[in-house]
Amino acid sequence: MRKAVFIRNASQLVTLQGSSKAPLVKEAMSELGIIENGSVWIEEGIIKAVGKDEELVKEFASRMHEAEVVDASGKLVTPGLVDPHTHLVFAGSRENEFNMRLQGATYMEIMNAGGGIHATTRRTQSATHEELFQESYERLNQFLRHGVTTVEAKSGYGMEWDTELKQLEVAKQLNEQHVVDVVATFMGAHAVPKEYKQDPDEFVRLLVEEMIPTVAELGLAEFNDVFCEHGVFTPEQSRKILEEGKRYGLIPKIHADEIEPYEGAELAAEVGAISADHLLRASEKGMKAMADKGVVGVLLPGTAYFLMAESANGRKMIDLGVPVALSTDCNPGSSPTVSLPFIMNLGCLKMGMTPAEVISAATINAAHAINRGSEIGSLEVGKKGDITIFNVENYMKLQYSYGVNHTDTVVKNGQVVVKGGQFVEKLSLS
Ligand code: NIG
Ligand code: FE
Questions:
Q1: 113 and 101 in contact (C-beta within 8 Å)?
Q2: Using CA atoms, how far apart are residues 64 and 273, in angstroms rounded to an integer?
Q3: What Å distances lie between residue 190 and 227, 242, 255, 306, CA to CA?
Q4: Which residues neighbour ligand 2 (ion) by CB within 5 Å?
Q5: Phi and psi at residue 266, in whole multiples of 5°?
Q6: What does the alpha-carbon distance between residue 423 and residue 428 come to, in Å, rounded to a whole number?
Q7: What CA–CA distance (Å, rounded) separates 306 from 335?
Q8: For residues 170 and 372, what is the distance between their CA atoms, to the nearest angstrom?
Q9: What residues are in contact with ligand 1 under a 6 Å CB criterion?
């Protein structure tokens, strides 16, 4: 039997209670449900009690000896962070393009010249399953060190079936073998391969008639994503890919209005996407449509920062009622980072969000963006024992003191896996 874990006496325990059913919007995004001197009892991987330390000490007095006690005094305790948008499984890096962009080349120019997504695709195609697994496993370790306990992972560096399959199989194996949970998204529509440049609709046909049905049949992904962008997939092509995916049970997501306004937000609302991501250039009409339909806006300010572009208008989206989540977009071209806490800092400084809002955006709203709102993202009885302890006294300091990894302890599935910033054991137990 697994030992119970008793986290005791946090200076602030962020519970976000009452948020499991629907993502938080507007003022509710600031209601963190903080308990001072708060404690949590976790057993068999599940949260059994949350409350004031003195209450829990009374309740569990006779069982104290059964538990691993974690002293959180002077520290901030939050739900394990959730990253709802990453391109986790890829090979290689692209620092050469970073250098080119610093000299004035644009992201799209590099991609259209055969670099960018195409460059990573070539590397990913030629990597073996084992190489891809090892590289991505390391990245997951780094996510965990930054307090992240669930990560969404997209395919999309295949552009042909064998590599798409390899990426999705690696994601599945990571989910099974790494303590961090990995939630898979099929993103065959990440770029149009060179061979189809003259006839992109033929590639769309291949996606909807062959790849999507096979992904669904093999149960390799829950979501279906498309890069709807001028020069990549048009709104019409994107609509078709997402609607066809729905017929096979794949929930739509969309890379929307990232580089140019393209009515991606409107399309997300129209097809009933669970989230629309990026939204740097989204229209007000699109934002309102998302708010009406409850589409989560997954904002990726690290991408804007790294591409030296203006960030999405997170403040406006929240004020209009869009449920906002935050993510790293971890990928080798536009956001090579695993630091969700740094993204939270950018949320405050670049998108006008408050320190409280960025906490809900990186926990419960992020969980809702990947259909996990009833299992993770808040500290409530019955939820998974996924908890992060930061070495700061309060939630504001987490964003204020930036560029530093404050992660002290991580409890995943009710087990202490990071302690004092270090892994406590080989991370092979899921
Ligand atoms: O979310 N926009 C498209 N896809 C990724 C970047 C992928 C890459 O450059 O390798 C993104 O920004
Ligand atoms: Fe992305």
A1: no
A2: 46
A3: 5, 13, 9, 19
A4: 329
A5: -60, -45
A6: 11
A7: 6
A8: 21
A9: 87, 116-117, 120, 227, 255, 258, 303, 329, 331-334
DSSP state, residue 310: P
- Best mutation site among 94, 233, 255 for ligand 1 pocket (most ligand atoms within 8 Å of CB): 255
Tokens 């009885």, located at residue: 381
Read off the pLDDT of residues 260-304 as tens digits, 9 standing for 90 and up.
999 999 999 999 999 999 999 999 999 999 999 999 999 999 999
- 8 A C-beta contact, residue 298 and residue 275: yes
- C-alpha 379/C-alpha 76 separation (Å) is 13
Ligand 1 atom nearest to 85, measured from its CA: 1
Question: What per-residue confidence (pLDDT) applies to 429?
Answer: 45
DSSP per-residue letters across 203-257: HHHHIIIIIHHHHHHHT--SEEEEEE-TTSB-HHHHHHHHHHHHHTTPEEEEEES
Please tell me the distance between residue 255's alpha carbon and the centre of ligand 1 in angstroms. 9
Q: Closest Cα to atom 3, ligand 1: which residue?
A: 227
**Ligand 1, closest atom to CA 329?**
1
Pick out the chain residues at pLDDT < 70. 1, 426-430
Q: Which amino acid is at 242?
A: L
Q: Specify the pairing of strand 251-256 against strand 223-228.
A: parallel
Confidence at residue 428, expressed as pLDDT on a 0 to 100 scale: 47
Strand, coil or helix: 283: coil
- What count of other Cβ atoms lies within 10 Å of the Cβ of residue 357? 27
Looking from the CA of residue 332, the nearest atom of ligand 1 is 10
Distance 329 CA to ligand 2 centre (A): 5
AA letter at 164: E
- Distance, in Å, from the CA atom of 226 to the CA atom of 191, rounded to the nearest integer, reads 9
Residue 301 corresponds to which tokens in the numbers above?
């300010």
The closest ligand to the CA of 116 turns out to be: 1
Q: Find where tokens 């059994």 sit.
A: 48
CA 331 to chain centre: 12
